[in-house]
């Protein structure tokens, strides 16, 4: 059995903007709605391939989304129903849709013992935060923060200095597209995947992701796939440990899932 842990946004599912940037041949299906508007898409072919894989293997979505944002993806509530999912950048493990209490307590104890309380972190951030560049703040399941930003107005010098400062108090930040994530060091997708691996049976671990927040998870897998449209390729295209997907956008997802199914025939 193959254990396939995968990031979601820009790895398996795509926004309207990404679908326009990288058009794909074939049918496209809306798999996520917000306020009655379709905001997330997969190609019909990708859905079919993932359904085929999921019949006999273990697919685990791994996302930085909060639980409610993950639950908004109706494709994973109806057509493909993973037994396990990891949300909140590793802060929550869902089992049959419900948070695993053991992991939840364990990760919160680790965060409490290694990182400055998040209220104090926000106070530090307030020194460089202003409305010119911070457009929106989201508290992600009480574990970390996501900020929507105006990239043209970011005070990069101050932000880099802040990044160095918070490393000393158990926090880190990632600037990914128009989102700034500030989260405790212990919130790592790889840590949650490693915990889950103790409870599932599999022969091979394959992972996929597009951003620096996925890197540790990809490195702990036997094969780590990443699309060439992603942040990882932009930052470290010469990384020999990565397996790059040569197609772009939703076509890269079809390529990824095609590789997975080829592996199943060789097992």
Properties at a glance:
single chain, 267 residues, alpha/beta, Rossmann fold, Hypothetical Protein Ta0175, Chain: A, domain 2, 2 domains, 5-stranded parallel sheet, 4-stranded antiparallel sheet, 10 helices
SSE diagram, text form:
Layout: E1 2-6, H1 16-21, E2 28-34, E3 37-43, H2 44-56, E4 58-61, H3 67-71, E5 84-87, E6 92-95, E7 98-99, H4 101-114, H5 118-125, E8 134-140, E9 144-149, H6 156-167, E10 171-176, E11 179-184, H7 189-197, E12 204-208, H8 215-220, E13 223-227, H9 231-236, E14 243-245, H10 250-266
Parallel strand pairs: 1-4, 1-12, 12-13, 13-14
Antiparallel strand pairs: 2-3, 5-6, 6-7, 8-9, 9-11, 10-11
N-to-C SSE series? EHEEHEHEEEHHEEHEEHEHEHEH
CATH architecture of the largest domain: 3-Layer(aba) Sandwich
The H-level CATH homologous superfamily of the largest domain, spelled out, is: HAD superfamily/HAD-like
Which class of the largest domain in CATH terms? Alpha Beta
Structural class: alpha/beta
Measure the end-to-end span: 8 Å
**Count of separate structural domains:** 2
List the strand order in the largest sheet. 4-1-12-13-14
Multimer state: single chain
Radius of gyration: 18 Å
User: How many beta-strand runs?
Assistant: 14
CATH topology of the largest domain: Rossmann fold
Total helical elements: 10
Helix content: 25-40%
Low-confidence stretches: none
Please give the largest β-sheet.
5 strands, parallel
Mean pLDDT: 96
State the shape. globular
Give the DSSP E fraction (strand runs of 2 or more residues): 25-35%
């Amino acid at each position: 059995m193959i254990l396939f842990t995968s990031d979601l946004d820009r790895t398996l599912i795509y926004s309207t903007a990404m679908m326009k940037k990288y058009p794909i041949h074939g049918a496209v299906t809306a798999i996520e709605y917000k306020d009655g508007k379709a905001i997330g898409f997969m190609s019909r072919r990708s859905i079919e391939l993932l359904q085929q894989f999921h019949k006999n293997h273990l697919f685990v979505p791994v996302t930085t989304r909060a639980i409610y944002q993950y639950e908004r993806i109706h494709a994973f509530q109806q057509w493909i129903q993973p037994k396990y999912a990891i949300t909140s950048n590793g802060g929550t493990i869902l089992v049959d849709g419900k948070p695993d209490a053991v992991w939840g307590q364990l990760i919160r104890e680790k965060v409490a013992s290694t990182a400055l309380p998040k209220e104090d972190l926000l106070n530090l951030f307030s020194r460089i935060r202003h409305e010119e560049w911070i457009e929106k703040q989201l508290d992600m399941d009480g574990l970390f923060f996501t900020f929507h930003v105006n990239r043209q107005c970011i005070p990069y010098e101050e932000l880099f200095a802040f990044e160095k400062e918070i490393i000393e108090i158990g926090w880190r930040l990632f600037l990914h597209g128009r989102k700034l994530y500030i989260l405790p060091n212990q919130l790592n997708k790889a840590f949650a995947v490693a915990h889950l691996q103790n409870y599932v049976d599999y022969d091979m671990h394959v992972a996929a992701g597009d951003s620096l927040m996925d890197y540790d998870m990809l490195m702990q897998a036997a094969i780590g796939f990443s699309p060439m449209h992603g942040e990882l390729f932009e930052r470290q295209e010469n990384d020999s440990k990565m397996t790059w997907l040569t197609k772009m956008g939703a076509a890269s997802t079809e390529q990824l899932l095609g590789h997975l199914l080829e592996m199943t025939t060789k097992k």
